[in-house]
Amino acid sequence: MPTTKFTTPERYQYHNGFLAYHESEAVPGSLPLGANSPQKPPYGLYAEKFSGTAFTAPRQENLQSWLYRILPASAHAPFKPYTSTRSAEDEAQDHIVHQLPNQLRWDPFDVDESVDWVRARNVVARAGEIALKTGISISIYTAGRDMDENTAFYSADGDFLIVPQHGVMDIQSEMGRLLVRPNEICVMPRGVRYRVTLPEGPIRGYILELHEAGHLELPELGPIGSNGLANARDFQAPRAAFEEATTGTTAAPWNVIAKFNDRLFVAQQNHTPFDVVAWHGRYYPYKYDLGRFNTIGSISFDHPDPSIFTVLTAPSSRPGTAVADFVIFPPRWLVQEDTFRPPWYHRNTMSEFMGLIHGDYDAKIGGGFKPAGASLHNIMSAHGPDRETFEAATDARLGPQMVGQGSMAFMFESCYMVGVTGWGLETCRKVQENYNADSWESLRPRFKAPSGSL
Ligand SMILES: O=C(O)Cc1cc(O)ccc1O
Ligand SMILES: [Fe+2]
Q: Which GO terms describe its cellular component (predicted)?
């Protein structure tokens, strides 16, 4: 099978390891020795602490970094609302959340080439309260333009788990540069300032926004042992890289755009935010190549729970119950004997939002679930293979079988009931009217009572 694994172009340099403690210096000697905040940090840099968890969060969960930069992030004018191109009524309409028990499926979302990363996102499903640090938002992003020169963006609303479906993202962040391509994912933590450019044209993809306090983790491996699924060494963080600050009256102004409680604000400053010469800590953006996922499955019988495909999980306070799991369905061999191999028909106490990066999803061979589309099976909304998949799997002669070749479906699974936004239901115009009819309503009873039993 070997799945394609990406290599790294020379221009990008990474540290490897999942939430490992990294030290990164763009200029040798710019990290202070044996102290975080000496009276005079090396080379006249300012020291800045960047907290991703409460100061007193338990050691294992505690994510903080120290940044050594030319000017501190606070050196900017006050934030003002960022002007919107749409009316307040339209925006309000798009954000209303509708709780619905229906199974939903969307055709591929259109790319809006007129916007950049700042305006790229449309929330399709949501739970919780951003200001209380609870819940998640699921968005579709599309863009056709680089972010303006001298512009940086950050979100105070939570970590972004970015799942590109189309197009390449070149991300210049405070901590360094990341190249993110479809079949890779990127986690951009709350607060990190960054600028997105599109070296190969338009982009489209999905974002899981984690409003909940806390961060994505690797799942426990239990009896699997010490390796498998997403391996820690395959997560890549940027190495420190900086631009010279330009200060004084000749400096071009910079715009820092903040997403704050789902509203955009802008503040001006006369120096680049990308002036971090060195950093150390565990709070930083990172990326992961889904082609490196070590997929594990049944080698005997029955269809295992999809939790074996979890890449990252954001735990709730209830053990084993996730605020959000990011689960993938990579190419894999199926060998189970006397088994209905696709997913079972099921109802789930968790909500399941699915997307498709490329290829076909093996539980929906009847068509209709397409790359750049999506589906939502909310809490206790019944679902499972479509009729075509059911019939093919029931009648198949079982032998070793490769599924998902050239394909990558994924699921954001959450313990929350997610509401569908006005944008997701109406504005995007992608909801499939015939999802139930096309998938399940044509299933016929196959029950035959044994003779003499009635
Ligand atoms: O519904 C789906 O297609 C996702 C899914 C896949 C699987 O293998 C088992 C359970 C499940 O919800
Ligand atoms: Fe499911």
A: cytoplasm
- Residues contributing to the annotated binding site: 346, 352, 361, 383
Q: Which residues line ligand 1 (CB under 6 A)?
A: 306, 343, 352, 363, 377, 383, 411
Q: Which domain holds residue 224?
A: 14-95+111-290
Cα atoms in the 13 Å half-sphere on the side-chain side of 174? 28
CB 3 within 8 A of CB 219: no
- Dist. CA 251 → ligand 2 center (Å): 54
Residues 222-235: pLDDT tens digits?
999 999 999 999 99
Are 278 and 312 found together in one domain?
A: no
Please report whether residue 104 resides in a domain. Answer: no
Ligand 1 atom closest to 309 (CA): 8
How far apart CA 51 and CA 282 sit, in angstroms, is: 10
Task: State the pTM of this model.
Answer: 0.97
- From the list 76, 211, 280, 303, the catalytic residue is 303
Query: Same domain for 179 and 259?
Result: yes
210 and 298 fall within a common domain: no
452 within a domain of the structure (yes/no): no
4-13 tens-digit pLDDT = 899 999 999 9
Q: Which residues are annotated as a binding site for homogentisate?
A: 346, 361, 383
Q: Residue 285's pLDDT band (boundaries 50, 70, 90)? A: very high
CATH number where 369 lies: 2.60.120.10
Same-domain status, 307 and 278: no
| Boundary-marking domain end, from 246, 274, 290 | 290
Contacts of 329 (CB under 8 A, 6+ apart): 306, 309, 361, 362, 404, 407, 408, 409, 410, 411
Q: Is the ipTM of this structure higher than 0.90?
A: yes
Q: Which of 151, 294, 147 is nearest to 219 (CA)?
A: 294
* Ligand 1 center from residue 411 Cα (angstroms): 8
Is 135 within the bounds of a domain? Answer: yes
How many separate domains does the chain show?
2
